[in-house]
Write the structure tokens for this entry.
Amino acid sequence: MEIIFDKTDDFSSLVAKDIKEMGPFLQYQQEFDLMRDQDHIQIAFAVQTIFQKLETMFVGLKDSFRLQLRNDADNWKLEVLLDPKVWYDWKRLPDGKLSKNDNDNAESFLKYVRDNFKQSPGSPSRLTDPEFRPCEHKLKSICDKITRYKCVFGHYEWECGARVSHKTNPNKVCEYYVLQERRKLCPDECTERNQCNFCLFEKNGFITVVRKERTRELELVPTLEYIQKGTAPHSNESTATWSVFWKTAKRYITLLKTLIPSAENPVERIVFNFGTWETEMDRDRNLLECHAHAHFWIFPQHVQHIPILFDHHQDLEDYMWINAQDLNFCIGSN
């Protein structure tokens, strides 16, 4: 995977930093200030460096992993969470135990989680609200012709349909869709002549999607038009190594800050899921990519100030804790 930079970016001075390994956990040894002018270039370069590192490791580790840029008092840490069970199976000796070095690395990860993260809550509940359920007719124009009553379900604003990589089906297309009834960040009823900054932002290639779950997160998604023009990449991997995405993330956070009375940064983490830890690829194990989407976790104290998250206060499952528990189980059962 080659890194994708904006033509105006100057990355000639970039130098890859060390990547610290703590068992099934990688951490880039440089912190970033996402809101600083040139750090979007540094972050894209660091993500590429981490992906290159993954290429040198056991191939099965790429079947499910998570990349996160985590906000720690406005110092952003770039981290990768690997599947602890796959990592343990890769590293264990014939007697089922880990070498002293691998065991020390695993213990360092467990200690890091205990010292820096709170216990993960239970699984998020699932919404069944009509606004999150697509109508069987997909398009409202078709539904209006067929349905005699007012349809209470959502209708497609667009469906991707881009060709995607698949192990067995060369004609497989992306089935990602966005509902036209989706919640929007725009706090007012804007018109074409009088649009707010949120509306103008969504005209530049990325839109906000609220998940079905009542969790405190937003998804930032490249639009169909942006992908069809060849302006934006389609997959998570290409997007995570695209400097324009991280520049867009900075603009997005700047907009979200205008909703917060204290003007604090409301974003806790920016997360990309890969492999079977991504929903669509979990449903179809032969799928090799999905429509790009980044998860923006919102700090609990700021959720109330973001109108489209009015009923999305539930905590997220923190996979730092989940992975630590899985790893601890693997070590303890052998």
The longest strand covers residues 64-72.
